[in-house]
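Q: I'm teaching a short session on how sequence maps to structure, and I want students to see two examples side by side rather than one. Could you give me a first protein with its sequence written out and its structure tokens following it? Keep the formatting plain so it prints cleanly on a handout.
A: Of course. Example one:
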Amino acid sequence: MAGGEESRLFQGRPSSDHSDERSVEEEDALLTGQKQERPSSWAKWRKIGLFAWAVIATALVILFAVLYQHQQQQQPSTPPGGTGEGKDGRPMTGKRNLIFMVSDGMGPTSLSLTRSFRQAQTGLPIDDVLVLDHHLIGTSRTRSTSSLITDSAAGATAFSCGKKSYNGAISVLPNGEPCGTVLEAAKRAGYMTGLVVTTRITDATPACFAAHVNQREEEDSIAEQEVGEGPLGRVLDLMMGGGRCHFLPNTTEGSCRHDDRDIVDLAKKNGFRYVNDRKGFDGLNMGSGVKLPLLGLFADTDIPYEVDRRNMDDIYPSLDEMARTALKALQDATEDSDKGFFLMIEGSRIDHAGHGNDPVAQVHEVLAYDKAFASVLEFLDQDGVDGVMVGTSDHETGGLATARREFPFSFLFPFFSLFFPLFFPLFFSPTKS
């Protein structure tokens, strides 16, 4: 056949992209003797329909899940005045206890150093930890409106009021306006209230829960407000700690007041029972049968560091003893009430040990706080009333660091620190707070 004829024979024949596929199908049919079914348009649309249904069904499931979650968030977990499920499966009533604990000046390195010290001192395994370690859920970012590093006053104002303020502020906002505290709100709602500290009861942290002044140094005014001389009257039912000197007139030995007002006498007029020594504390019988309100001031200023106090146990009660006494006293006082209590407990002098760069004092302060922490957990576990404990720190102090020193000439380190201050930041990072 001539080339021209061949081209005319196949001229106009359409090309098919599926020619090879069809050839394979026809060849299979010839070899097997079975008719090959070609996909119909119905099968194609069936696949498309199934895919569309899967997409729609998935979208509906996601939509219903989002709507359900939104509805759950809108509804309170326990209706106002209603009941829910408490501990041990018991129905919850409206009665609650809240214990707020503050480890003033304690940071992660404080815990690490204390943990290692305890292990080394008592021969514990390296995986033995503090009670605090079992309940750590995270960290918080703290700062004040006037500084990246908060002080105890601004920190406690944030805790008590839920508002940021400047360093030195005692529950007042940057414009000087007082802010209501959680303790004052609890008292207004009918709860009993208390403060337990190892510094002066007029120091920044306790003051921020029951007083309002522009500067933390105004401790004379703080003392007056704590015993009930203020716009809200008496908001405290129990106070334990140091700071007796701010309650005594300046005509009395041991006073640090700037005037001759007798705040102890004012407290008694407002119904407070007053105890001021170890004998008086022991008379409280660890809180059994204590008549409230109670003012316990067991040191002129701060109660000594735990490392020293333990050798003067006949003079000063410990943080753990005061905490357990307060818990029992408030428990008994609210036994017949449909309201519970609010108690703030502070491991106050962890902060002071950090400022003083005293690691010995610091680890013993953390251990004392850990012991009180364990006592609070035990109380909550055994108490018949539902309660919660929240513990936190306001800041870290002193720039504490624990690390292995590999300085090749470590005996020369004091020399470099003294005469070459530019080298100092390589080894320590002191902070002011």
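Q: Perfect. Now a second example for contrast.
A: Example two:
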Amino acid sequence: MKPSITLYGLAALGCVSATPVDKRQDFSKVNYPAGTGADLHEYPPGTGANLASYPPGTGENLPPTTGGNPPNCPATSNPNPVFNFTSTYHILATPDQVVNGTTDPVFTGGLPGSQATYDFGINVDLDLICYNIKLTGFRGEYQSPAKTATHVHEGAKGRNGPPRLAFPNPMGEGHERISVGCLQGPFTTGLLVNGTDTGTGFKLSQIEANPSGFFADVHSSLAVPGAARGQFPS
């Protein structure tokens, strides 16, 4: 993982401009002594006022200042590596993808009328996942043996599998509910299998290695196996 460059560090390199200071002064009310040129309408010959070009060596050929970064300064558009995702995923979860059972899973039909979108950004170097989950048409109460009812499970399409990530349940009034934030490993789900949490030892690199082997879902008291489910794209 590359080290981040702070704004203080950039300032030390001369890559961050200071706040402009207005050094203009109001000379409109200054009373100049007689003979100092206060009332001249044009400058006398030889004073440089009418020179067509500046003499050599006076800086006449310096390039204009554009306000850009000095040479060799790093780009500052995104100095925070947290939001440099190594992969991103958009998932549409629908009721018709929900299955129940592990040996011979059957499609349950989920919770009719419900739908969810999951937008994930993963940084495997930090073992961090950021999420934007939008749930519509949800009814009943959230219900799951895990600590939340909104998950990423390990399981192929049409198959079930244990939850590996548990996200805060989407909240909101009315038709749409939203959950936004980031989680960083080590992960827990609150669901124990043989005394071990199903999130124990899970790494986000496993999703990147085989995204189609994972799915996102949400569970309702009216559809406990799942209200809506969507597979990660391959």
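Q: What should students look for in example two?
A: Point them to this: The chain has a mean pLDDT of 80. Also worth mentioning: Residues 150 and 167 are 5 Å apart (CA to CA).
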